[in-house]
Amino acid sequence: MAPQTSRQDKxxxxxxxxxxxxxxxxxxxxxxxxxxxxxxxEGYRLWxxxxxxxxxxxxxxxTFNLGHRNPEVVEAMVDxxxxxxxxxHHFASLARAELAARLAHLTPGDLTFTVFASSGSxxxxxxxxxxxxxxxxxxxxxFATGYHGRTGLSGAAGAxxxxxYFLSDLPGQFSxxxxxxxDAMSSALSGDDVAAVLIETVPxxxxxxxxPEGYLPAVKELCDAHGTLYIADEVQTGLGRTGCLWGVxxxxxxxxxxxxxxxxxxxxYPIAATxxxxxxxxxxHENGWGHVSTFGGSEIGCRxxxxxxxxxxxxxxxxxxxxLIQRFGVALSELQRRxxxxxxxxxxGLVIGLxxxxxxxxxxxxxxxxxxxxxxxxxxxxxSVLQFKPGLLLEDDLVDTVxxxxxxxLVRAKDVDRPVPxxxxxxxxxxx
Length: 432
Known about the structure:
Helices cover 41% and strands 17% of the residues. Helix 9 links the parallel strand 7 and strand 8. Helix 8 packs parallel to helix 9 and helix 14 crosses helix 15. The longest helix is centred in the C-terminal third of the chain and has 24 residues.
C-alpha cells in the first residue's frame, strides 16, 4: 500500500497538470487506464506515486537505454557540475569539442562535424537547414507516417496531420512517400530538386516496421544519383539499439547527415546532435552563427554524453545486447506460435514492434501489461502495434519476468474490444 502522502502527491500532480500543463493528455491516459505519475525510478524499474511498480519497456523512445539514473551517468553529471555549467555557445569549449571528435570517430563515413542541440526535434531542424544550404534546394522527402519531432521543420517533415493542426504545414516543401516503396521514392527524386531524404532507420511511431531487404541501400543509391543528401534520423534507433551503434550500419548505409538524441542524454541531461559530412558542412566554414543554441552542447551535457558512449560501446554492453537480441528473438517467435493473437513480431535488434490482431489491440495490451507491472506503449500511428523496447543492460531475471507477463497480457487482451482514443491526430495513412 502506498503511503497516503504519495497518493496525495499523485492527485496533486494530476490536478495541476489538468489546470496548467496538458489537460487532454491527462484525459487520454485516464481513458487508457494507464494514468502513470512516475515517482521513484531505478534501473529498468519505475514506481508510480500511487505505489504501483513497473518494469520499463517504453524507455521514452530510448532515452533510458542504460536505465533510469544509471549510476555511472549520474556520476559523470555530478563530476562535471563540480567545475562546469552549460557554457557559452559563442565560444570554443573543450567538453563540446571532445564530444564532437568522439562522434566523428564513432559515426560512419566522413561524418566529421557536429552541431549540437537540446532536443532531437531541434537537431532535425538543423539537418534540414544544412541539407538545403548544401544543395541549394528546398524540397525534403520523408515518409507519410514518419515522426521527427514537433518543432517547425521537424513537425512538417512528419505525418501531415500534426503540423496541419497548428497551421504549420509547408505545402510544396515536403513530399511524403510510403515506407518501403522504392518506386515511390524514385519518382519523388526524379526531378533532381530534392535537398534531402529524411529517414527514420526504423519508423518508431508507425510501429517499427522492418525495412525491406535492400531498401535503405537502394534509397541511398537513388540519393547519390540525384544529388540528394541522405539524413538518418537515429534518435530512436541509434546508440546500440539495433545491435550496431547506429541503425544505418546494420543496413550498410553511410548517410550524409546523422541525427542522434534521446539516449545520448543518459536520461539525465538534455543533449542532441546533428553529425554532418564534409560534403554538407559548408555553412560551418562560412557562418559560425548560422545556427545557435544556448543550451545545445551544454558542457555538462557533453560530459554526460561521453560517458553514455563509453558505456554503450563497452564490450560487455555489446555482448549483453547481442544476448538480448537472440533471447528475445527466440522467445517472441515461440510466443507467437502459442498465442496467434500476436500476429507479427517486428524485430530489428532491440527495436521491436508487436502487432496484434485488433486495430486498437496494442492499447488493450498496454492496459493489461500495466496492471501486470510492465510499462510498454502502443504506437502512436498504429494502435495495433506495441512498442517493445528492452534496455541495453537488461538482466536475465527481468527478461524472464517480462516474457511471463507479456504472455499473460496477450491472453487477457485478446478478448477485449472497446473504443479507445488515439494519442495522435489521424491521417489518411493511419489505420482507423
